[in-house]
Amino acid sequence: MSMKQIADWALNTATQRGASYADIRIVDDRQRSLATKNGKVGHAASGESLGAGIRVLVNDSWGFAATDDLSRDAVERTAAKAVDIARASAQVKEAPVRLAPEPAVKIEWATPCKVDPFSTSVEQNLDLLISIDNELLQVKGVTLAESNLQFGRSEQWFYSSEGSDIHQTRYLTGAGFAAISFAGTEIQKRSYPNSFGGQYQCKGYELIDELKLVENARRIGEQAVALHKAEKCPQGRLDLVLDSSQLGLQIHESIGHPIELDRVLGMEANFAGTSFLTLEKLRTLRYGSDIVNVVADATEHHGPGLGTFAYDDEGVAAQCTPIISNGLFTGYISSRETAETIGEHRSNGCMRAEGWNRIPLIRMTNISILPGEKPLTFDQLIAGTDNGIFMQTNRSWSIDDKRYNFQFGCEIGWEIKGGKLGRMLKNPSYSGITTEFWNSMDSICSRDEWTLWGTPNCGKGQPMQTMGTGHGASPARFKNVKIGTAYQGN
Amino acid sequence: MLDKAKAEEIFQKIKKFASVPEVETIFASTDFSLTRFANNTIHQNVSELNEQASIRVAFDGKTARATTNRFDDESLKRSVQAAESMARVQEPDPDRLAMAKPDAAAGAAGPPRWFEQTAAITPGDRADAVGKIVAVAKKNSLVTAGIYSSAQHQEGIFNSNGLSTWHRQTSAEVSITMLADDSSGWQKANDPDVKHLQPVELAEIAAKKAGDSQKPQELAPGKYTVILEPAAVLDAVGFMFMDFGGLAILDQRSFLNNRIGTKLFGENITIVDDVDHPLQANSPFDGEGVRRKRVSLVENGVIRNLVYSRGTAEKMKNSEYAGKVGDISVTGHGFPLPNEIGEAPMNIVFITSGGEQTVDQMIASTERGVLVTRLWYIREVDPYEKILTGMTRDGTFLVENGKVKCGIRNFRFNQSLIEMLSHVEAMGKPVRASGEEAFDMVAPAMKVSGFNFTEVTKF
Predict the structure, then answer these.
(1) What pTM was computed for the model?
(2) Cis omega (within 30 of 0) on the bond before B338?
(3) ipTM of this predicted complex?
(4) Which candidate in A27, A325, A366, B237 could, as Cys together with A307 as Cys, close a disulfide (CB 3.0–4.6 Å)?
């Protein structure tokens, strides 16, 4: 049976029962997940999941139902259920749902992928992970070595009652490792190339070769052990240099979430929270210093980020939206419904669903800070810093439910004195208020130091959905930042 | 929905498709619906039917898993072959145990957790309840957001040694936020039996919190006596229970490394893991089908025992830690194999021994302190001292001279759990509580001295 036929069953049933709009996403997901611990297989798993989610507007209210059964009877029953649910929604409403217009399209698109990760053998994958573990365990004092590989392939067929027919296939590849060292009364950890599983991108196995995992294992293991003897990060106000992965997470938490228009409009108030970026702040708020330029860019041109696609999950084309332009707040990320609510002429295409059994929500695409225009290497950035701290690789992250007050801890820090990196520092952390922090940025490295990081585990929604987001960043410097709060009073 | 008989039938096919001696399948079947509201409007309303089979094969000290939600012969064969091919290329692990035998699943039936009245909830029922919550909001000139969900869930494990388990349960949940211009209030509850849910009562409490915390004052950060409502307690303490697994000790990644048998918390802290507690609501068997047992984790502040999967118990008995970690036995707390994290207690019950106080009594005995409704965005700052950071949210109040004085702006905390549980001055009666950062537990409200607030935010 063709996907178009399945879609017709759903859309015809929905419209015949009174839906003014309906769409269906049929999704075929495939995953491989491998992990090793201390040179042994930790887990080895694969998964596949196929199903359809049907979204309808009836009486100006939403309904959604999903099924793993793609038989005609089940699909039509599920579409009818979505209509019934929408009718129930309509019992409690203050205003009708209206959608910003979007032209119907017919398109096929796939992630550019040099090497299909599923074409590599599990044996080859495990050999790599065990080699990394063995390198880490060569370092005396490493008490736990962990490595992992993740592959995903998601094929989606989207059809709407407006005539869209969009077929997309997205690949995901990710890998990383961590060295943990327990000694005395301290557990220290170093991760590579990033914490929480490493680096993730929408590309093929070629990412794994680029990451040079084995080559970096020994150095990372040695750092984990050396942290025990390092000085504690001081407390006070100092200049702060962040590596690009930590800056990526800083963007995620203090820019990416507050610009979500559903949060701004109160739709996430019970769980993820709201946002300090109330509507009157658009094009009036000085979000950051003049050198802060941030975009929400889902287009292929931006790179193979976890937020790269051709069309979002309600059939809107991928776009690049200026979010912060020379420090000025210039854009939200939106859906067809929320764009219409605030009077925008079009959604900027940020509706994404975790799978066939979830509705699309406004999610970050690739929310990236643009690199500095003037050439500036990381070494030059440090050379221009008289007294500060350089922090690498996230260890903890927390921010309030309007996205004002944040605190981040990093795995490792380094003192900067007189333009040079000095002694290693353990347990570094910093905190601040979002707009004050971004307004204190006085320098950012140029394109050569820019990396498009993947955050695979962003949670939002009820029921909770996990989504991958992309964040491009170069190392940057912030002036007079509050350092060391995490251990204050402890 | 998938039932035990149908699952058994599918498992027989899976066994037939396998070319290796040991096969296990975890079945899960879910019918889940959730009505979500915001701005006094139902804005999302969803329903999902999903069933899956997660197939594990094992042979020669090797094992792997493949999961599918398609039960046709071709899909099942493909998944069995995927698991076998992933296992085949592994090096044999001499520590890998044979699959559990049927007697591992034996145990008392446990309390009923399937209720017809919960299974029968319709979209219209949920909309009616949301309408009543919205009416409470409007009566108080507030705006409300939240959820009302209902679910039926069935799960079971079968293996080629003849082990066979099945569990079914229902669940209904309500979470409500009430918003004023500069304040908010929150309540959440769930239960297998919908008759125990009182959405309007919860809405009234949330509305009162939102009303009472309007025009919040800014208080200087510092160490305060706090009264943590049960949701705040569980979201904080939830961050320590992964460390009570035996494998966490063997891996030396636990804050209990070198601390088992020591008095780490106050005399008044006693914690057990007990899936059969009447206020608990989970499956009675673990990821290998082993019946969960009641385990005493903390007794009067002393760390007594860990929980174990079958494999970890064997490793621990043969390790340098045997004799230093309390009782070592298979407790039925393992996660599905293969995994690298072992096990954890997930059915936490705090035990109090008389003298419980209500939150009102705690307030009345407090000269100056902070009443906290819930905590938010909690993360671990230090894994061995168990320092956590996070924010207060949706109803934070100054208590002075035994009374709630006013709402205050939300604080950031950086607080060691060890210190927190060493300074509990009073506890309430443990209740079934639900938060957003940790799993549900049976936890009390707590009055804690010297709680470390380090910063204040803008609202």
Answers:
(1) 0.97
(2) yes
(3) 0.96
(4) A366
